[in-house]
Amino acid sequence: MKTVLGIFRAACFSPGMVERDEAVLRAVMARMEASGYAVSYLHEEELVPDTPMPYMALHMARSPQALEVLLRWQRAGCRVVNSVEGVHSVERASLARWCAVQGIPTPKTWIIDTADCRLLCTVTTEGVCEDITFPCWVKRAGTCAQESSDVCRVTDAEEYRACMSRYRSRGICEAVVMEHLEGPCVKFYAVPGANFFYSLPMGRLGYDKFAGNTSECVEDDTSWACEAVNRQAPKWTSMLDVYGGDAIVGPDGVARLIDLNDWPSFSACRAVAAEAIALMIMNKTCV
């Protein structure tokens, strides 16, 4: 019997989302088990070099230690979803550079050395990337946000320097700075191998991972924004089998990608997404 190991994301990489993240992985694994696979689970902190390699690993891991084990398994023939290369490809600095190469519309982006606020790189897919303008968004480079201060909206140079100082004190060496864009934010989820795509206005998500459940709602009709994201989404596939993200849709109708995540919670569409993910995996396994 083919063995499938489900690996939950560490709580530090899943602030306010532990239960939601685990729920979608369990839903996928339940469908795999119903199709005859032998399933088991562990948390990424429990994944060690001598953990027995399964036939397939469905994981949400992000720690260097866990990804190192998964990369070794991958090279040994284990089917790993998402691939380790895919996980690295959507780390913020890497994603900004990838979008520039692919010509994917994004906000103007600056990659900064937090030690002295020195500009390391400017990235833009439209026009000229000038000096940093305010307001803007400052985000820790590398892995995803682990606390609310990992993504900060700053309105002036003083707040910007203070944010960089906090990053330095926490040992965060690089930051990604994005220009602030006006327009509705759309959350989306995708499983390209199953032709699955789902989007909704951020305000209708019903929760914030740092603030918990919210009663925020979108008053204006933003269906046009979701349609814009749907039209441009095929350009956003990377090395991931399962992903999601956020985009801002400007008055010009262009959806600009601001974030791409490996294996999100699919909270807004968990049941249908789990079916799509399981179908995609089983179809690929049979090839």
- Main-sheet strand order equals 6-5-9-7-8
Largest sheet: 5 strands, antiparallel
By helix and strand content, what is the structural category? Answer: alpha+beta
- Can you count the helices? 7
CATH architecture of the largest domain: 3-Layer(aba) Sandwich
Number of strands: 15
The fraction of residues assigned to DSSP E strands is 25-35%
CATH class of the largest domain: Alpha Beta
Looking at the chains present, what oligomeric state does this protein adopt? single chain
**Spans of at least 5 consecutive residues with low confidence:** 210-219
What is the mean predicted local confidence, pLDDT? 89
Distance between the termini: 17 Å
Percent of residues in helices: 25-40%
| Estimated radius of gyration | 19 Å
CATH topology of the largest domain, by name, is Rossmann fold
Counted up, domains total: 3
Write up what this structure looks like:
The two termini are 17 Å apart. Helices cover 30% and strands 27% of the residues. Residues 210-219 have low confidence and may be disordered. Strand 3 (56-59), helix 2 and strand 4 form a beta-alpha-beta unit. It has a 5-stranded antiparallel sheet, sandwiched between helices. It has a 4-stranded parallel sheet with strand order 2-1-3-4, with helices on both faces. Strands 11-10-14-15 form a 4-stranded antiparallel sheet. With 287 residues, it is of the alpha+beta class. It contains 7 helices and 15 strands. It folds into 3 domains: 3-88 and 274-286, Rossmann fold, CATH 3.40.50; 108-179, 2-Layer Sandwich (Dna Ligase, domain 1), CATH 3.30.1490; 185-266, no CATH class. Helix 1 (18-34) packs across helix 7 (270-286).
